Amino acid sequence: MRATVGDKLVQHGRIVGQHDKIGEIVEVMGTDGNPPYRVRFQDGHEGVCSPGPDTEIRHKEISRQTGR
User: What Pfam families would the database entry show (predicted)?
Assistant: First the structure.
């Protein structure tokens, strides 16, 4: 699992009715984009995460327009 600052970390709910927890990666603490990551969640809470199998990284979109 690799990530960069600005990517989204999604922790999927593990029981019925539990919502996914989504945060933005604000610091990559491992080497070459590897965990652990410092993550800021939607409620403003920050924490250090070493993602498990119930987690996915959604990479930020990169502008592909010419000249940018």
Answer: DUF1918 (PF08940)
* Claim: this prediction has a pTM higher than 0.85: no
Q: Indicate the number of domains in the chain.
A: 1
The 10s digit of each residue's pLDDT in 41-63 is: 999 999 999 998 889 999 987 54
**Contacts of 59 by beta carbon, 8 Å cutoff, 6+ apart:** 3, 4, 7
Could you tell me if 26 and 38 are in contact, meaning their C-beta atoms sit under 8 angstroms apart?
Answer: yes
Cα–Cα–Cα angle for 41, 8, 61, nearest 5°?
140
Q: Which residues span the domain enclosing 26?
A: 8-57
